Amino acid sequence: MKFKFDANQDYQLKAIEAVTRLFEGHKFVSSDFGFEMGGLPAVPNRLEISEAFLLDNLKKVQQANGIPADSELKYIEGEIQTASGLQVVRFPNFSVEMETGTGKTYVYLRTLLELNKQYGFLKFIIVVPSVAIREGVLKTLKITERHFRELYHNQPYRYYEYQSESLSQVRQFSLSNQVEIMVMTIDSFNKDSNVINQATDRLQGETPIYLIQATRPILILDEPQNMESDIARAALARLNPLFTLRYSATHRNLYNLVYRLTPAQAYQEGLVKRIEVASVIEENNYNHIFVQLEEIRVQKSRISAKVKVHKQMANGTVKEATVTVKPGDNLKDKTGRQEYESFVVEEINPGTNTIVFSNGVELKTGEAKGDNREAIFRAQIAYTIEQHFRTQRRLRDKGIKVLSLFFIDRVESYLSPDGIIRRLFVEEFNRLKVKYREWKDVDPEAVQGSYFSEYKTEKSMENDKAAFDLIMRDKERLLSFSEPTCFIFSHSALREGWDNPNVFIICTLNQTASNIKKRQEIGRGVRLAVNQEGERMRDEQVNILTVVANESYKDYVSKLQTEYMEEYGPGDVPPPPPDARKKGIARLRKEYMLTPEFKELWEKIKHKTRYAVKVDTKRLIDDCVKELDKAVIRSPQIVIQKAQVDMIDENNIQARYIGGGAAEDLSGRYPLPNIVEWIKDETKLTRPTILEILRRTKQKDAAVKNPHEFATTVIRIIKEKLADHLVNGIQYTKIEDCYLMELFQDIEKNQQYLIPAEKSIYDHVVYDSDVERQFAEGLESRKDVKLYVKLPSWFKVSTPVGEYNPDWAIVVEEVNQFGEVTNKLHLVRETKGTSNRSELTPQERRKVDCGEKHFEALGVNYKVVASIDELLP
To answer: Of 506, 552, 526, nearest to 381 (Cα)?
Structure first.
């Protein structure tokens, strides 16, 4: 298997452009050898753009991406030891937020290649917080290498993992005049004792980090929320970066956010799997004492704890309830049950997150006493195994291998010879496999693989190198049917940085409260699945992730939604995942398909079309010139930055930036590149068209003053305008090829997303949003609507910007004042949150514009609507 990559995904291109546009106005810097910090030889990155320009660019990028503009650049400062002594360094930071599973690593790797292509930057260090993330980055570098070399015309670049025993890499990084990509864990350079921070004979007495400092590397921080401590920030400053780019789905601090792809956007665009939750909990068993520590609260003069217990209610019944306790409280009084008499709160310790009772019971936050742990674990494991068997049977013909991931807290529960989780897995696997002929001869030991934090160091990885290599380094083999491993056991070691597109079930066997957020857990499996050819599957019936949780469905979903709300507010939260145990089926009513109404509707809409694009060259030129004339293309400058130097003590000084400005205009001092060929290669426009744009623009002087920014601005404007013109100039022609009725099948969906239907060809309607649900209810309530169908995901219209799946096909009968049918309408309707197309994203707008022209070629009325009131033409 070889993974295949799509170079034209709109949301990824926007994330890349958001970073590259930060440096518009920056000339292309040639790779000159020189003597840098401390007189060390190096080929460094150079930032030759003023702070004012950079801030202005930042505001423009934020405005273009709908992000509130920052009033200042966010810097990290630090005093560092260099080859020439103590120095204060200061570098700007920029953040990109992308939902897990949408190609964050691909985006930042392609971004650094773009930064080299557009501005000449050469030295990049990808800093990661863990071995797991490091291995994921190195794997992505490997599998994207051929793709990037084709995309960037074999631009040479080297990538490698920093290794303290191979310091020649550091010298190569410093002296090379081509793109260098070094991947480092934060732990490899955040302590004075690290090899990188010590002089060594292997580098002729040089200190390795001084060589890195001299290159002014650009840092890419992967999951930077794990590198926010004072120690981590000081370590990052020690690298003397030019600037840092921070990529995560869950930033703790946003430093100059330039692009955001939220969970709701990823969900709505079908960029990630849908999520469903199956909960396994103990209910209605109050025959034993149950105590669980939920949280500890520290107030000004009071410490208290919330404890979940079995409480006797006023009507005599016993229910699970949460009570608040303080030192000295007796749970007998809180619960009304004599069984709790020995549970007197002796100590509540916020430092260790524990509560101690007088009978010796001690609980950590999340830990429980008295629950039937083994029974719950067994039920979770059994459900996961059977769900795995069923999912694999359903997807095998599509060439998709299914993986299941178990999260556990205690390593010994799996690794110990008598570990409860390993034992239960073997027992349940052997019990269930007899029901599935394709599994009946499979040994449960052969299908297991594991990765735990004990493998943090290279030395300990050797303990289980084969499993580590398979899970962390060889995704292709893991996804092959020839490799038996398909059940993976881990814990927080895989909470970030690792994922696999074919994880379809995640089982959380947590014995105590996990510090893994729900979003981090589900992030291991939300990426869209791939088949044996390495192709992404876009079918929403395939891309479903099931979470098997040992808490109630209601609690799990509530916590997940709370995490989204805290991050994004109520306006940009995806719909709550449904309950996996409440499956439903929208059954096809074949008798409805035989009615004259449906046959006539289907005859109208079933045909496919072929499109041709006719671009009005004159209008394209006019639009490009108009936009180009408004663009601000600034002059390159030499900038002076002023710093105040303070004496800290008799041995140390400190410099603080206090201002600066342009000192000399460098306009016209650079050789004029072949701008026409450059633009032609990037936009695919003809040479005469480009020459006409350049001839007519008022910005001719800018081409001489700052040729690089002029060219990149022209390219950006042409691409934006050309995308609109392709859609505006598209023409569809009806062809004989068509969709067959036989493609309609029953649809399995969670009950949460099914509503009963009388007028649809299905007995239930499947909806994906509140807008769709309300529209379906409106169709059912209108007397003039005779029949409708929610068009399945296989019903697609081809467009220049990707395939488009319209929403609804509807038959409406118009009647006169006497109730007589006067006209029959065949309609196709697209439901959106707004019917104003200018409020849609550019990609959404372009697709519905193409959809309208497709159905126009078929003679079918098409419309974008926000409610049932807008149904009629």
So the answer is: 506
13-78+94-261 falls under which CATH superfamily? Answer: P-loop containing nucleotide triphosphate hydrolases (3.40.50.300)
Q: Is the dihedral of CA 181, 183, 186, 187 positive or negative?
A: negative
Helix (H) or strand (E) holding 748: strand 747-750
The SS3 assignment for 368 reads strand
- Nearest partner of 731 among 608, 854, 619, 860, judged by Cα: 854
Instruction: Return d(Cα 28, Cα 31) in angstroms, integer.
Output: 10
Give φ, ψ of 337 to 5 degrees. -125, 130
In whole angstroms, give the CA distance from residue 117 to residue 570: 40
* Cα–Cα–Cα angle for 627, 837, 798, rounded to 5 degrees: 90
Query: Tens of pLDDT along 675-690?
Result: 898 888 888 899 999 9
Does domain 586-610+735-870 bear CATH number 2.60.40?
no
Under 8 Å between Cβ of 453 and 115 = no
Per the structure block, which two tokens stand in for 65? 């991406």
714: helix, strand or coil? helix
The answer to whether 463 and 454 are in contact (CB under 8 A) is: yes
Residue 462 CA neighbour count, 13 Å, CB half: 2
Where do the domains of the chain lie?
A: 13-78+94-261, 291-369, 373-581, 586-610+735-870, 617-660+667-723
- 290 near 308, Cβ under 8 Å? yes
Q: How far is CA 484 from the centre of its chain?
A: 29
pTM of the model: 0.72
Residue 670: partners with Cβ closer than 8 Å, 6 or more residues away: 27, 636, 706, 707, 708
User: Under a CB-based contact definition with an 8 Å cutoff, are residues 37 and 174 in contact?
Assistant: no
Per the structure block, which two tokens stand in for 860? 């079918």
Each residue's pLDDT tens digit, 535-567: 999 888 899 988 888 766 567 666 776 777 666
**b/e per residue 225-261 (b: at least 16 CB within 10 A):** ebbeeeebeebbbbbbbbbbbbbbbbbeebbbbbbbb
The crossing angle, in degrees rounded to 10, of helices 373-395 and 420-432 is 50
pLDDT tens, 617-638? 999 999 999 999 998 877 765 5
CATH class of 373-581: alpha beta
Fold agreement (13-78+94-261, 373-581): yes
CA distance 627 to 680: 18
Q: What is the dihedral of CA 221, 225, 229, 231, to 10 degrees?
A: -20
